[in-house]
Amino acid sequence: MSCDVLKELESVIRERISSGDPNSYTYTIYAKGVHYIARKVGEEAVELAVASLAEGRNRVVEEAADLIYHLLVLLAAQGLSLDDVCSELRRRRR
Questions:
Q1: In this predicted model, what pLDDT tens digit does every residue of 32-71 receive, in sequence order?
Q2: Which residues, at least 6 apart from 45, have a Cβ–Cβ distance to it below 8 Å?
Q3: What CATH number does the domain containing 38 carry?
Q4: Structure pTM?
Q5: Domain membership of residue 80 as a residue range
């Protein structure tokens, strides 16, 4: 997998936030604010940890995908992007 799919997902998230569509799950959680989104990220992180200890590989992959999605929503809500995170990772690699 390349990061292209993550960039595509980030773009879709930003489009859905911009749309203001109340039927969009992405917009709905965004509209609830950073505190709500941060709780969702925490919940998904715990679910991933539990899945990695007690559930199969498929559940780990599913929960990891949920965590990444919610993390991208949180970044968007903070005015940040995947590029910001990648820059930090590059900086740490040095």
A1: 999 999 999 999 999 999 999 998 999 999 999 999 999 9
A2: 67
A3: 1.10.287.1080
A4: 0.91
A5: 4-93
